[in-house]
Batch of 2 targets.
Target 1
Amino acid sequence: MKKRLLTSSFALLFLFSSTVATAHPGRTDANGGHTCWTNCSRWGLEYGEYHYHNGGHSSSGSKKSSSGSSSKSSRSNSQTSQPKPAPKPSYQKSSIKVFVNGNRVEFANAPLIYENTNLVPLRDLVQALGAGLSYDQSTGTIGVTKGSYKVTLTVGSNIVFYNGTSETASAAPKIINGVTYVPLQVIVKGLGAGMAIDSADHSFKITIK
């Protein structure tokens, strides 16, 4: 009987020693965990790490996981928030040459092609045609007159008035880099001028009285 009691005592002592060897000093809270402040590296813990003795997860692991998720989210946001390249202008320079009664018009700014329509600087064209020009900046309304002819246009609008009669033009007047451009054919037609087109050398030959 004594031999059995002695054997049981050794077994309990070994079990208790095993439990102590896998834990470390420190009182646990109501949740079965506590914060390590001494000999943390000995137990495979970080200084100040909150952990459990009952197999629960430590707060350090949660922080690392949260940090990893935050890092991934940050990388994802940086990839999706990259600025888009600026859209290319919908117009391009035109190589046309314009003549009025045999004299070439010297444009201070190059003519443009927009929506398959030749646009030319308004002021230079009007001066070459010997016409009058009015412009209402508040409404964007353009008025070109010569003799009994009057053309009325509005910046950004395809509607043009020839002596009060409205028609739809192929393109609207535009302001590009501070210069007002108008469809060449609209002004020529509105002032009762004639025009011959030489496609071989891209020239427009206007005749007007």
Note: The domain at 92-207 is CATH 3.30.457.10 (Copper Amine Oxidase; Chain A, domain 1).
Target 2
Amino acid sequence: MLNTDLAKPEVDLTVCEYTDIPMHVSLATYEYTFDPWTNDSRYLYSHANMHTEIHELNVLMRSKIPWISVFFISAFSYAIMLVCFMVIFPIYRYEQYESLAFTFSCIFLVAFIHYMMCIICRYLITKNVILSVESKIKELNKKYKHEQIYFKLINFRGLGFRYLKFLPIFKKNIYFTLRVVYVYCKII
């Protein structure tokens, strides 16, 4: 007897692969860049299209960084806070240098306020960049739906902070990655 339930499925089964493209973020200089597309041999479609899409995402991220961000580089205020902190306590012991200690205390306070403003600015810029990338990813998913290519932005940093990233000084960290899921082969 033949089992009629074992007929050919209506939709072919597919094996999907993915490629992760890391986003390097330098919070000291407000740089957000994706690595270029690797010509992965498992990717069966045109590599030129993916090179173009990644390049457009990089241009989009650069366009979302305002020029005013040059005034909010936290490395300067952090360095000033560190110097003032190291100078205040040795000077504060001597009564003849109380006015100088007060001056350094005021400078420390201004640098601390600037540092907090930098964190807020970093948060707002990162949020603006990531939201624009996510909206572009939605457009890409609609554009490549027929080819069964899907894009997703993955956040690597935990603690529940999606947009607030903390500054490792002058180092490009990978906070996000763009996952491109595509069909590798079909099982008929």
Note: The radius of gyration is 25 Å.
